Amino acid sequence: MYGDPMIDHLGINCTDWGRAQEFYDRVLGVLGYSRQLDYEVALGYGRDGHPAFWIADGSRNGANGPNREVHIAFQAADAAAVRAFYDAALALGAESLHAPRLWPEYHEKYYGAFVRDPDGNNVEAVFHGGA
User: Fold this and answer.
1) Distance (Å, rounded) from C-alpha 97 to C-alpha 34?
2) Which among 15, 26, 52 has a CA at the least distance from the CA of 37?
3) Locate the VOC domain: which residues (predicted)?
4) What DSSP string runs through 105-130?
5) CA–CA distance, 90 with 76 (Å, rounded to integer)
6) How confident is residue 121, by pLDDT bands cut at 50, 70 and 90?
């Protein structure tokens, strides 16, 4: 691994949910990755409790068109950086998906903000140290 990772996690929407689960269970399994979180409509794969790659059922969120959104989360150095990311994105005309806040459903110190980029992707900044 080279230095600190820029990407915290990445998510894609899948058109055939059952087939996608079978595919990623098998191909990621041979690489030593497994399901870390299961929200029924989204699965997070990784190691050691950190889901770094997510698949989601695109039929549930209308994302099965030819230009399905991608979700990417960038690591932030602290909560102030998450807020700066959000403010910079809005200043550039990005759509707010979720203002900066704690997300205890992910874990107690998960602090993140979500915006939609100019191409319709769900982009997040996350800090794992709380607010």
Assistant:
1) 29
2) 52
3) 6-128
4) TT-TT-EEEEEE-TTS-EEEEEETT-
5) 17
6) confident
Pairing of strands 70-75, 50-57: unpaired
DSSP string, 60-100: GTT--SSS--EEEEEE-SSHHHHHHHHHHHHHTTPEEEEEE
Nearest residue to 13 (alpha-carbon basis) of 43, 39, 33: 43
d(CA 8, CA 28) in angstroms, rounded, equals 18
Q: Could you tell me the sign of the dihedral formed by the alpha carbons of 96, 99, 103, 105, in that order?
A: negative
Domain boundaries, the chain: 69-131
Per CATH, domain 69-131 is 3.10.180.10: yes
pTM of structure: 0.80
**What is the structure's pLDDT at 34?**
97
Share of the chain above pLDDT 90, in %: 76
Q: How far apart are CA 61 and CA 11, in angstroms?
A: 14
